[in-house]
Amino acid sequence: MKLQPQLINAAGAPAAIGPYSHAVKLGNLLLTSGQIPLGPDGQLVEGGIEEQTHQVFRNLQAVLEAAGASLSDVVKATVFLKDMNQFATVNEIYASYFGDHKPARSAVEVARLPKDVLVEIELIASTPVEL
Questions:
Q1: 119, 79 in Cβ contact below 8 A?
Q2: Residue 128 pLDDT
């Protein structure tokens, strides 16, 4: 039997700015699209790396919740930064959201992110299988 992907779109996260879903669930595997610091209204949040990182996590939490998951279900995170010099700040905020849970992670500096934001994060999580 082939599993059918379930497209996840979260009411609490900003609408996708392209032809993609917030996440795709396949069995118990959940893969989120990268989230950038847009508010639910689709507007870029004001402020620097701190405000942007907190908004990214609020968006990710909304996406996870819509799929029946939470940050404690995350098994892998990928962090994209415009400037690796801001890694320590992002890392501190990241740690505040995950606490003792420490999923695998990659962090990379990129030349440019959508809407010229400072940070984007995508997640892979394990969720309950619905039979």
A1: yes
A2: 78
